[in-house]
């Protein structure tokens, strides 16, 4: 037996031994405690999850100025279209409610969580726990819910009740009206599937009666834009006239055929129908025509 063959045989044996372990698919690995810790950062309304440490309004002032004010304003009044963090008390029933930490936010613990996980906007999770405590304290101070000598930590957060806390209620709506089936369930093949991809063509056929143009755009938005808007994976970019003129010199029918059947070109791989097998050939054709029209 050649060495290659015996190596193949060995690896087949190893694979079948693994496959015998029920539920083992031969990929993946157990998450390490460090990886779990990286994800497990939520803080609950009751404070569960708040770390050790603390920070004062005083320390928060300069940190806020340095890391937050460029977007939220030195007094939480907002810069441009960024959200305001202070003000707006009593405005929630107005036609244009002004939602801020002081007027709307329910709990100090979840404010800590939000700032910790999401801010500053361009560098989330870059702040130390103490910095988050200090900045949160300062945001509370801007909302006049604490004094300037306040120090926030996992104990003192309980002393601060935000003005709107009492107005949140538990959502009594059930997530779904269906009861989970555990035995003698419906045959999955008989269940009607209503995913976006499968319902779209029907809708499009309806529109098609009026005009072909919307089908092209709708199909493009749904199935093609993800690559063709940015040039992902080498896709020619919508609107890039030079690139598309060169391609259509080969004939529009070639482009349509390639979009329907897919092909490996020099720039990259164009999957058949962009990977959306449920699309009709007509819808893909309309999408190509739309793309050419947008790229003249
Ligand atoms: C580059 C701009 C930028 C910077 C800097 C920034 N933020 Fe934000 N912040 C945003 C944007 C945008 C949102 C809205 C995000 C959303 O709705 O998904 C936001 C939302 C918030 C909210 C929620 C507001 C609400 O009521 O829904 C808080 C609180 C907040 N930021 C605090 C901070 C703090 C504290 C810092 C400094 C550590 C900071 N942000 C730095 C842009 C910024
Ligand atoms: C996963 C990314 C991806 C998606 C989704 C995608 N394309 Fe493409 N497409 C490509 C790439 C990459 C190329 C360039 C291949 C090459 O020429 O090397 C390409 C090329 C094309 C071309 C030029 C064909 C030619 O012969 O020059 C057309 C037309 C086209 N795509 C239409 C579509 C349409 C219509 C859709 C949606 C139904 C779509 N594409 C969805 C990646 C994608």
Whole-number mean pLDDT: 85
How helix-rich are the residues, as a percent range? 40-55%
The total count of helices amounts to: 11
Query: Oligomer, anyone?
Result: single chain
Bound compounds, please? heme C
CATH third-level topology of the largest domain: Cytochrome Bc1 Complex, Chain D, domain 2
Unreliable spans: 195-211
CATH architectural group of the largest domain: Orthogonal Bundle
User: What proportion of the residues form beta strands (DSSP E)?
Assistant: under 5%
Overall structural class, as computed from helix and strand content, comes to mainly alpha
Overall description:
The chain is mostly helical and 296 residues long. It folds into 2 domains: 41-167, Cytochrome Bc1 Complex, Chain D, domain 2 (Orthogonal Bundle), CATH 1.10.760; 196-294, Cytochrome Bc1 Complex, Chain D, domain 2. It is built from 11 helices and 4 strands, in the order ααβααααβααααββα. It has a two-stranded antiparallel ribbon. Strands 3-4 form a two-stranded antiparallel ribbon. Helix 3 packs across helix 6 (129-142) and helix 7 (196-208) packs antiparallel against helix 8 (213-228). The longest helix has 18 residues, at 3-20. It is extended and about 75 Å long. It starts with a helix and ends with a helix. Residues 195-211 have low confidence and may be disordered. Bound molecules: heme C (HEC) (2 copies). One heme C binds at residues 67-68, 70-72, 82-83, 85, 99-101, 105, 114-115, 119-122, 135, 139. One heme C (HEC) binds next to helix 4, helix 5 and helix 6.
């Amino acid at each position: 037996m050649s060495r290659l063959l015996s190596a193949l045989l060995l690896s087949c044996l190893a694979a079948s031994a693994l496959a015998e372990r029920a539920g083992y698919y031969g990929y993946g690995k157990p998450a390490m405690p460090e990886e779990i810790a990286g994800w497990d950062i939520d803080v609950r309304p009751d404070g569960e999850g708040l770390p050790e440490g603390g920070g004062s309004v005083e320390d928060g002032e300069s940190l806020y100025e340095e890391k937050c004010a460029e977007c939220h304003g030195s007094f939480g009044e907002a810069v441009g279209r960024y959200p305001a963090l202070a003000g707006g008390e009593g405005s929630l029933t107005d036609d244009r409610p002004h939602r801020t930490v002081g007027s709307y936010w329910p709990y100090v613990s979840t404010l800590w969580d939000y700032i910790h996980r999401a801010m500053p906007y361009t560098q989330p999770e870059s702040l130390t726990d103490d910095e988050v405590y200090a900045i949160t304290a300062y945001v509370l101070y801007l909302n006049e819910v604490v004094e300037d000598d306040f120090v926030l930590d996992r104990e003192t957060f309980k002393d601060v009740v935000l003005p709107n806390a009492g107005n949140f209620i538990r959502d009594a709506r059930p997530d779904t009206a269906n009861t989970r089936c555990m035995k003698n369930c419906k045959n999955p093949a008989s269940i009607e599937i209503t995913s976006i991809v499968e319902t779209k063509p029907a809708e499009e056929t309806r529109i098609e009666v009026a005009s072909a143009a919307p089908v092209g755009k709708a199909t493009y938005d749904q199935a093609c834009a993800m690559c063709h808007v940015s040039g992902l994976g080498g896709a020619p970019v919508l609107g890039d006239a030079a690139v598309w003129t060169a391609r259509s010199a080969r004939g529009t029918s070639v482009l349509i055929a390639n979009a329907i059947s897919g092909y490996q070109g020099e720039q990259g791989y164009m999957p058949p129908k962009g990977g959306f097998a449920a699309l009709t050939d007509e819808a893909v054709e309309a999408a190509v025509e739309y793309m050419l029209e947008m790229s003249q």
